[in-house]
Amino acid sequence: MKLIIKNGFVYDPLNGVDGEQMDICVENGKIVEKVDEHEAKAIDASGMIVMPGGIDIHTHIAGSEVNSGRLLRPEDHVRDVEAKTAVTRSGVGYSVPSTFTTGYRYARMGYTFLCNPSMPPLEARHTHEELDDTPIVDKATFPLLGDWWFVLEYLGDGLIKECAEHVAWMIMATKGYAIKIVNPGGLEAWGFGRNVKDLDDPVPYFNITPREIIRGLCKVNSILNLPHTIHVHTNRLGQPGNYITTIKTMDCVKDLASSDRPVIHITHCQFSAFKGDSWANMRSGAEEIAKYVNANKHVTLDMGQVIFADTTTMTADGPWQYTLYELSGNKWVNHDVEVETSSGIVPFKYRRKSYVHATMWSIGLELALLIKDPWKIYLTTDHPNGGPFTEYPRVICWLMSRKARERTLKKINKKARARSLLPSIDREYTFYDVAIVTRAGQARALGLKGKGHLGVGADADIAIYNVDPRKIDPSSDYKVIRRAFARAAYTIKGGEIVVRDGEIVRAFNGRTYWINFSGVGDPANKAFLEATENLRKRFREYWTVEFDNYFIPERYLKASAPINIETKGV
Q1: How many angstroms separate the CA atoms of 228 and 217, rounded?
Q2: Residue 7 lies in a domain
Q3: CA within 20 to 30 Å of 295's CA: 38, 250, 269, 281, which one?
Q4: pLDDT in tens, 449-462
């Protein structure tokens, strides 16, 4: 299809375009300089905003923990039902929607690329089956490697190169995209009913600490030349006083940054930005974290914004989920994935009148507003942990409108309101800022060269929103903005119109992006053959699946998009 999107107000931060009225041309799924107007379909975007397709750097949408959440919460199914149409399949779920429903709802909001951030390698096939089942959007998934036994053993012995070789094999085997670390060392400790307390607390039965895991995998990431940094869920997440651990975590890899390129991403930072030493005096540590991020170039964050809603928490951080179960008294699922990771699921309701919940709501927004450079922090809710992704338009309104924030502040716990930093913050995001934190910044952080921008040669993933930036004041007209971002006027995926006026008009398989290391697996590579034989031996000793059943062939994916990477000597 050839398209011309005419007269829209374009926000394309990666190309420095800030609300310029211009045309965008599309041919063969790519942005091009021009097309024959007689052959192209024209979309009149006059009085509308045009942005690249949205990108979500951290959203739990597929795999065993998500499916377990669906099983655990039948009551969540009936809250939000997706009706079958001539184009779409039916589906259910509010906080944990079914696979087809997930793809449709993201596309309706103008999103076109998703990162599933938590994949136990042992359960990669299940994850890819569900990602394949999620229509329209492109996606990538991050294997959990921070507590994998091989990693702990190699790093404990100081064998960085050998660790890099095994991580390369694991990422290729599971068709992963980035190195995910959750509560480093704590998940292995959880296998023995324990946890780690800080960066230098030793991991039981392994000669290693969380600091050494983080630094070691940061070095591995550099050796493998991965497009994204290590993706870190910090130790002591969800515990009062954890902001100190978060700052220590960012600082422990500062010396490994050789340029302005970030080397670590702290995910859902709101949950890791608590001051205090108990729930009674828990308060915001956002100001201290923002000061650190403002002064350093080696780190990026995403928000993990809390929404006041009934949701489902799920994470590989098994010990934290057990704590949450004890705090809430809600039903609970916990799981230890053999030699690899853990997980936990607990239903949870964030209440406006709860001091702790209201403080958490405030912290996410404080981080986004106090960090001066929007290229360093991205919009997420850690779906579904802080709330469902369908609430992103609401978060955009809070970022763009002080009045919208004040309206919610009036409804929250009085003590939390008195301690919140939000009343002292005048900053309001512009549409350009929104395009960074929901698109361009995330594309840059993920190393997605064809995504997140509208330059010639980029993938034709485009969102058009029916809001005229000339005629509205975002501060007071935030409800108009919320409605526009909730239901895109058009979503274009790969040059094809998939959403029109908030309705799905076409659905097809999106692609799965994964890393393919050039030369790894070469039969002539003696070191690789030796490492493979060692893996086979370990599989026979420790795993319940055979080595040959672990590797996922490319043909297993419905629509594969390998990214070829040259490594540094692996």
Answers
A1: 12
A2: yes
A3: 281
A4: 999 999 999 999 99
